[in-house]
From TrEMBL:
The chain crosses the membrane at residues 81-103. This is Helix-turn-helix transcriptional regulator. It comes from Shewanella schlegeliana. Keywords: Membrane, Transmembrane, Transmembrane helix. Residues 8-61 form the HTH cro/C1-type domain. The lineage of its organism: Bacteria, Pseudomonadati, Pseudomonadota, Gammaproteobacteria, Alteromonadales. PROSITE patterns: HTH_CROC1. Pfam families: HTH_3.
Length: 104
């Protein structure tokens, strides 16, 4: 899981903690803290430990990937296609009901 390494380092430094102190507080290894602060790579357990120690919500540390242009176009296209299909189906049902009432 990707978290913001700058935020982790800043929060640690604000408390005046060393990387070893943070590792001990979170019950993780020093190497894990170093990796988090360098690469932003953390397991879910590490994320939960950091959030508990810093008393913050997960969303403060998580890096949310932004969708690519192609992904946005696919979502938009499929949404429009579904809406068109649904409108056609409903229109057909309404038209058939009217015809049944008028001619029936």
């Amino acid at each position: 899981m990707e978290i913001n390494p700058i935020t982790v380092k800043t929060l640690r430094q604000e408390k005046g903690w060393t990387q070893q102190h943070l590792a001990d507080a979170c019950a993780i290894s020093l190497r894990t803290v170093q990796r988090v602060e360098k690469e932003g790579s953390a397991s879910n357990d590490t994320l939960l430990g950091l959030c508990a120690v810093f008393e913050i919500e997960q969303k403060k540390l998580l890096v949310i990937p932004k969708p690519t242009h192609d992904q946005m176009q696919k979502v938009s296209f499929y949404g429009q296609w579904l809406l068109l299909a649904l409108a056609t189906l409903i229109g057909g049902c309404i038209g058939a009901s009217i015809m049944y009432l008028v001619l029936g």
